[in-house]
Design brief:
22% helix; 6 helices; 191 residues; elongated; alpha/beta; five-stranded mixed β-sheet
């Protein structure tokens, strides 16, 4: 039977075609997908899927509020399972650059020292996911990860994997000013 809209049969062929096609074969572009029989949400792209483990990760990638494609479980089962999505990723085009995702924004991590200072697992392949370049490029790129961040109303300097509170505005000015203080989600402020 045809898909329905507002309780009645919707006879327009294009509407029915795209809904049947998507439910059988999955979305035609990068998407958040789930099956009706499972509570799990996945980031899908090409022939791959990554489990979105929680709302914090969904928000970090800017996926909260996006349309979720409901697909057959067999479609999801046929995708290569790349584990769980994290806030760290690199593009699938061979670039070594690692990005931190936060609030729908992406930031490149310019060096191993920045990874160490921020307490990020940049050398852990289970933490840094390889994701379609299209997915990463769909986020608003904000340049290199700045030297300071704020969370919960306080500003911090990440050093050696720990967050050091900034108590003096002179310190902020010496590091480039308040424009260089990145407000981040709690998931990225766990140092």
């Amino acid at each position: 039977s045809a898909y329905t809209l507002r309780g009645g049969t919707y006879y327009y062929g294009n509407y029915n075609f795209i809904n049947y096609f998507t439910s059988w074969f999955g979305p035609t572009r990068v998407a958040v997908a789930k099956s009706a029989s499972s509570p799990n949400f996945y980031l899908t792209f090409g022939t791959r899927k990554l489990l979105i483990p929680n709302m914090d990760i969904m928000t970090a990638w800017g996926l909260a509020g996006k349309t979720v494609s409901i697909v057959d479980q067999s479609y999801l089962d046929g995708l290569t399972d790349d584990g769980s999505l994290t806030t760290l990723a690199k593009k699938d085009n061979g670039s070594p650059t690692i990005y931190l995702m936060d609030g729908g924004l992406s930031f490149s991590i310019p060096s191993g020292q920045v990874c160490t200072d921020w307490g990020l697992a940049c050398n852990d392949t289970s933490a840094v996911k390889t994701v379609s370049a299209t997915v990463i490029e769909s986020l608003n790129y904000r340049g290199d990860l700045p030297p300071m961040f704020s969370n919960g109303g306080a500003a911090y300097i990440p050093q050696g994997g720990k967050k050091r509170p900034i108590l003096d505005p002179k310190t902020v000015n010496a590091l480039g000013g308040f424009a260089k203080v990145l407000p981040i989600q709690s998931i990225n402020a766990q140092q």
